[in-house]
Structures are given as structure tokens and as C-alpha cells.
Write a structure and sequence with these properties.
single chain, mainly alpha, 0% strand, globular
Length: 293
Amino acid sequence: MERSSLNIWVQAARPKTLWASVAPVVIGSAMAFESGGLHIMSALSALLGAVLIQIGTNFANDYFDFHKGADSTDRLGPTRVVQAGLVPPPTMKAAFIAVFVLAVVPGAYLIWRAGWPLFVIGVLSILFGILYTAGPYPLGYVGLGELFVIIFFGPVAVGGTYYVQTLQISWPVIISGLAPGLFSVAILTVNNLRDVQSDHRAGKKTLAVRFGVTFSKIEYLLSIAIACLIPLILLLHNDKHLYSLLTSVILLAAIPSIKTVFTAEGIVLNHVLESTGKMLLLYSLIFSIGWIL
């Protein structure tokens, strides 16, 4: 059965991964609410901007990975629409440019409200979203993907969301941002672990390719475990927000995924990719509610 154009573009946006941009906005907004600085328009603008930048990045990845030969017919992950011939490369190029331009709309409002720090964050987010797979030394091809993800899907996203609402920043907000960043690292790790063989053939030197599958399995475990310890670290710094410790239940929920990462390989890891995204969303909701209570 032929897929509709809408379904193809939804697939290209990789909706199961978009929790990586939603979760830090939820956390940052909850912390702003708790501090008495919630600003709905800014929160919604931050959410829209973050999702658009991630979609634009996903489109750009689809386009540049195809041109670099990283997406081949034997890939184990979800279909990449350019490689599959569902979207012509020029159309995908126009699409990722258009999405990044759309992200400027909520971004302009945030810059008007919060000033140059948001301009810097927006420009760097788009720039590194493109450079993740573009240019002579793409971040994702030289083993710097995890660094980009933990920074921009972590402290930058949470801190930026908090800042545009309260017009101030604090260390607890920055530290709390490490948790969604680490979950996003876990998502990337599963992706790289699944594709380690095809990435090696394509010359894509992810950490899984550089250091091996055992390293990546441990990386996945530690990313989730440390993320779940962040509320405890915050509690030790300030004996408030005790209920945020309820995020520890995520460790229990993660056991099946961790077991699969350590015992399986290949296409089976697609299920772990999806479940890790759900864990990130669940973490952000539990942490946010616990922080407010």
C-alpha cells in the first residue's frame, strides 16, 4: 500500500525521538513555575522552537547521511526517506531549510523577551544541528555526537527554557538539565550500537565504532543510572524537592531495556530506542511534578 506524503514526512521527522526536545522544556517550565516565574507564552515558544529545531536536524541528517553514504539498503534502523527514494534529495534540502526558518518565528519572540543569550542559543542549536552530519568533520562522524546531545538537549535546553521565563538562571537548573541530556545520550547510544557495523563500513566513527560495543553498552547503562541520580545530587545540595526522588522508579522501568542492550543486537534495538524515549518523557513528568510538590 502506497504511503501518503504526510505519512512520509511524519516518518522523516522521527516522532519517537522528539521527546528529547519536549522533555527539557517540561522540566525547565516546571522549575520556573516552582520559582514563581512561569510564563506561558515563553514556555510554548520554547517548546515549538525546540521541536522545530530537532525536526530540522532530523531532516538535515536524512539529507547529509544519504550524500555521505551512511544510509544504505542494509540499514537496521527505521527507514530514511531520502535513501529509500521516498523524498528526492533537493526536496529534503529545501525542507530542512524551511523548518529551520520556521524555528526563527518562536525564536524571535524569545530573543525579544530574553535578549542576546537566546540569540546565541538559537544560532548555535541550528548550526550544530546541521554540522551534526554536514561539513568535512561532522560531529556525528567523529565521535562528538554524545557531547552535542548532552549539552544542547540537556543544560542548554532546560536552562534556556527556565531563563526565558524567569530571566535568571541558577546552578540547580543547569544540573537538572544533565538528566534529559543523559537520556538523550542513551537514545543516541542505542542508535549507534545498532548501526555499529554499517557505520564502520561508511567510515562513521561514532563512539561505538571507536571503542566497541561493550563500551556502548556500559555507556547506555551509566547514562540512565546517572540521570536518575541527578535529583539525589540536587537534594544533597538543598534539602528541598524530596518528591523528585520518585524518578528513581525509572531505573526499575529501564531494566528490560538495559537487559536487551546487553544481550541483543541489530534490529531488536529499535524497540529499546522507542522505550528509552518513553523513559525520558516519564522522567521529565515525574521530576517536574516532584519538583513542584
